[in-house]
Amino acid sequence: MAQSYKQKQVVRYYMCDRTNKLTLSMLVNVLLEISGQQSALLNRGEDFVRAMGLSWIIIHYDFEINRMPKAEETVEIETIATEYNKLFTYRDFYVRDKNNEVIITVKTTFALMDLEKRRMARLPEIVIAPYQAEFSKRIRRNVKAMPVEKESASQKIFNVSYFDIDSNNHVNNSRYINWALESLDEAFLSSHTIKKGVISFEKEVKENEIVTSYSNTYDDEELITAHHLSANGMTNCTATFVWDRNKKEG
Amino acid sequence: MAQSYKQKQVVRYYMCDRTNKLTLSMLVNVLLEISGQQSALLNRGEDFVRAMGLSWIIIHYDFEINRMPKAEETVEIETIATEYNKLFTYRDFYVRDKNNEVIITVKTTFALMDLEKRRMARLPEIVIAPYQAEFSKRIRRNVKAMPVEKESASQKIFNVSYFDIDSNNHVNNSRYINWALESLDEAFLSSHTIKKGVISFEKEVKENEIVTSYSNTYDDEELITAHHLSANGMTNCTATFVWDRNKKEG
Questions:
Q1: ipTM score of complex
Q2: Average pLDDT of chain A?
Q3: Which residues share a beta bridge with B22?
Q4: Which among A64, A69, A238, B97 could disulfide-bond with A73, CB atoms 3.0 to 4.6 Å apart, if both were Cys?
Q5: Would an 8 Å CB–CB cutoff place A33 in contact with chain B?
Q6: Chain A residues close to B27, C-beta within 8 Å
Q7: Residue A214 near residue A154 (C-beta atoms within 8 A)
Q8: pTM for this predicted structure
Q9: DSSP character for B11?
Q10: B-proximal residues of A, 52-91, CB under 8 Å
Q11: What is d(CA A145, CA A242) in angstroms, rounded to the nearest whole number?
């Protein structure tokens, strides 16, 4: 049986947006902290994989959000590495509130990056075994993000700055999320809430690159935004978010 | 006797820079979280002051850093509101490592902002009494940041973006720190460490403003950078940092 790991976390003010709700980028940071702790507990922490010249990277997020927790709220986060194949491991996260209700579910795809060659490496058995995930030959097809029509898209340009770069020597995945969202305007962001979405990371962004964040908004049966981040003519990240209009709080 | 409040904190990877050391902006976030917890414990939390139309803001930081803690390190943070006058309260923070050595000392000046008028308010006795800080008529002269010579300064321009704004409806003070530092280049930032500094916040930055971050570097007896942030021709923030060259880690 796959190993599960749980931990309580208090949402801090600095993790929140102007409405004192947890931001999506900080959610992702906290989730990775929890899976990192599980790895450390299984003696497969950052130091272990780094000594092999490898580092975990995120390939894909697929998330459903009933509600984002608010500042000072205590939540319990559970993570389970459910399945793996030669290249990927699939890890689920559940965020529960104090009534034990799942308020957020995130399904993720992790891979190992060869830090020298800057490309994906096969998962060594010695790294993956302790999680007791199931082996399956099948490589899952993740839900694809919707395409962006660049001609009609909103766009915003971002310079990669010093603090965007993490210990893997590339832009941290949580920064892409803010860049994608910040192509939407303030009026939209402050009156809407993400209820689900997918994010795919296709290529790393390095120091001194300039990133263009494109987005289209579709308001049909559901209110959807499609996102595309690119630097140097390459696609770095695609994402789709499904939104709810905020209700007035009573 | 002034009330002291202590709490242990684990430094998380997402609070760190590429070298897995705590960033100055995240240090500040964590310190304010701790003082916020003390306030909540004394029934003077965010909700209490906000119900009076007020919110705490930071006017000045003066810090000494022996070393920044690293990812996954546990530190203990102590805070004491030592003294106040009609406009300001002075609050000290001590960050200690597991050997109980003080690794960081931060002296701060807080004020209350009237959320409607967007200016400083007198400190009401009902807000300040529970901290048992000493009253003193004297308004301290904080150490001033060094002036910047704009003609010879490095400069970098930043657009205020959605996630820079906090629940006070202005740019969060921790963002100014990154903007100041990011006017320095990567070669400098990755080979130097801050050992002390002062930061003064003079005017709030609001949504849709464009901030220019100026800095001069002086390499005399000490290696010093002087910083100036401005938007719309106003001075928003000044800062001075004293740096050490990084030693090779053994």
A1: 0.93
A2: 95
A3: B16
A4: A69
A5: yes
A6: none
A7: yes
A8: 0.95
A9: P
A10: 72
A11: 11
